[in-house]
Amino acid sequence: MDNFQHLASGKLTTAIVICCYSDKRWDILNKAIEAAARQVPAAGEIVVIVDHNPALALRLRAKRFESPVRIVENIHPPGLSGARNTGISVSRGEVILFLDDDAVSDQDLLATLVRQLDDPSVLGAVSAIRPLWETDRPSWFPDEFLWTLGCTYRGLHPGPVRNLIGASMCIRRDVFDHTGGFDSGLGRTAKALPLGCEETELCIRATKALPYGRFVFEPSSGSDHAIPADRATWKYFLHRCWAEGLSKASLSLMAGSGEALASEKTYMTRTLPQGVMRGFADVLLGQPSGLLRAVALGAGLAATAAGFALGRTRAALRRPFTSVPARALEPVE
């Protein structure tokens, strides 16, 4: 614990980093920025990183916001990891709250997460992330697979967690100083499959470098994560599960299968079977949608496993790991 006493929060300075890339999310992006500007107490700075879209950057710079907002273009390779690394470089806060461009935060989100860092062993915290459905929620969609939408899923309990969820997570800057930034070989891009696991890889790497540190889930505050209609479909659901399997395959080679899949083992042996049983119980209670949820649980697991098997084979032949150079985290004026 002695190694972490210098991390005690006291009055930590804070920054909010929001990464964006598409004009199609203009309305929800503005709501996300406005919610960030209304945090109580206010963040020390708000930085919006535009991922290789000069027209969007120009449009944002022309807009008047309630609080000062810096608009910065991504100086690293396209994708969420590169954009976040730019945010780390240009911000100054000792604690960075990363928000998605389609996540509208509660007014007390920053304060709630920073409060977790009063414990010097806590390296970062994630809030509750609630789905904000554009259309009615599909009756077949299981809570256990809300992670496919970047939201808090059934089976995630308050307290220590292996990794954070990117839509609403707070991390000490000291973590990046010790371990480097997000791996640019992982993370979403506008054109690629919805790959991910960059937060998982970072958290595993951080706890290896800082072995007395931990990450926590604090659900008392949160964000509403917009779910467009095209993501409330079987096609997207199975596609996202497949992509997660591919990502986990790459991660298992980078971080080792034990750490990369530790949470998934509990999820598969406890959370999913309990979900199937709940689905069948609902059928007995006269709710046919329970059967559909049980089918979705099985189909999601199968698609994820198939993606993992293929990804493991491909990754073994060509490891998609790209280390983040030290200069990626140097301050940028």
Structure description:
With 333 residues, the protein is α/β, with parallel strands linked by helices. Helices cover 41% and strands 18% of the residues. The protein has 10 helices and 9 strands. The chain has helices at residues 26-37, 54-61, 80-90, 109-116, 173-179, 198-209, 234-255, 257-260, 262-284, 289-317, and strands spanning 14-20, 45-50, 70-73, 95-100, 103-105, 122-133, 159-161, 168-172, 214-227. Strands 1, 2, 3, 4, 5, 6, 7, 8 and 9 form a 9-stranded mixed β-sheet that branches. It is globular. The two termini are 34 Å apart. InterPro entries: Glyco_trans_2-like, Nucleotide-diphossugar_trans. Pfam families: Glycos_transf_2 (PF00535). Residues 16-177 form the Glycosyltransferase 2-like domain.
